[in-house]
Amino acid sequence: MTPTRFPELSVSGSPTQMGQNIGEHFKNQIREVTELVLDRVNKGTQNRITWKQAEEAARDSFHRVEDFFPDIMDELKGTATASNVNLERLMVMNSRNVLSLAKDGCTSIMVSDQASDSGNGFAGQNWDNDPAMAPFSAVITRKGTGKTAFTSWLQPGIVAYMGFNSAGVGVCMNALNGPTDSKGLPWYFLVRCILESESSEHAIKQISSAPRALTANAAMITTAGPLNLEITPDSVESLQAGNNGMLVHTNHCVHPSLASNNELYASRIYGQSFARKARAQVLLDKQAIDGKVSINDAQALLADHENFPTSICRHPNDDRETGWQRSVISIIVEPSLHQMHISNGNPCENPYETYQMK
To answer: Among 50, 108, 155, 240, which one is most buried in terms of CB atoms within 10 A?
Structure first.
């Protein structure tokens, strides 16, 4: 029987100390997932990448990361040493979405304090991606010296993924159609910026000042409410919630200045993104009419099967490019309560477990 709860670890101290603790604790998982990651990058794509090409691309990222985020690179070096895995392999894992334009999808929702029945704002999403990653995943809390503490679901060896921090900022994310820049920083390092930020303003400043490798979306909940950032190599555009205090985002650009990407990069739009966004908005609006939106309402929305096989809750199907993917997890972050809820597998079939920052 598959366990419903992911392994947990809390680390603290210097970047090197945190990296060493992660590498030692998850040594076996890191070795296995770094061997698997390139095969999964190549799955469903026509232009396969060799390990030599992947590691060369990863080395190109070293200096950019060291220039902008030397502390994060020190953590990765500590993880590499403790797990006895080459640093290049860890960088391949942290650069995996730069290496391939394979279609990934997610549906994200953001609900303000005022729209939430508990008075605590939240953000949530399904991670429609590779089910092979689930056995190698964990929930890790990092309490770096002089840094904002944060808790994230991820594969150990990755510097950050969906999660929340101690300053009341939570982040979910969506693959997004748009340009790439090989000279920019991989996406996960920008997510780390968000999760180590003291506020949404601090996060925007950090991201705007760093070179960015690809177009992607950060669906955030903050102490000021929902905030969505459509991030490209050339710009960082903000979307704010309307009067109802709610936002929905999927896998296409919404900001007017980026809407042209939806035609220019139409082949990268995943799984009826427009239909999923409309469906999620209808469900949220309906729940809001009946009162305020609860965590249970959000969970029901994320388990919705309308428009299968490209529904909000995604299951394997016979699509040649993406049919092997599914909603690997469903996650809802409540940063003001320092907790998040995660299903290990499709939310229609698996319970949510609650994880507290420890």
So the answer is: 108
Asked whether the beta carbons of 311 and 302 are under 8 A apart, the reply is no
Of the candidates 317, 299, 294, 256, which has an alpha carbon nearest to the alpha carbon of residue 105? Answer: 317
Q: Which residue is listed with tokens 């200045």?
A: 257
Taking each helix axis from N to C end, the angle separating 87-94 and 70-83, rounded to the nearest 10 degrees, works out to 120
Name the pTM for this structure.
0.95
The share of the chain scoring above pLDDT 90, in percent, equals 78
* Banded pLDDT at 102 (limits 50, 70, 90): low
Domain map (residue ranges) of the chain: 102-356
What does the pLDDT average to over 330-352? 98
Between residues 63 and 220, which one has the greater pLDDT? Answer: 220
Backbone angles phi, psi at 113, to 5 degrees: -55, -45
CATH code of the domain made up of 102-356: 3.60.60.10
Task: Say how far residue 203 (Cα) sits from the centre of its chain.
Answer: 15
If residue 235 lies in a helix (H) or strand (E), which one and from where to where? none
142 backbone dihedrals φ, ψ, rounded to 5°: -115, 125
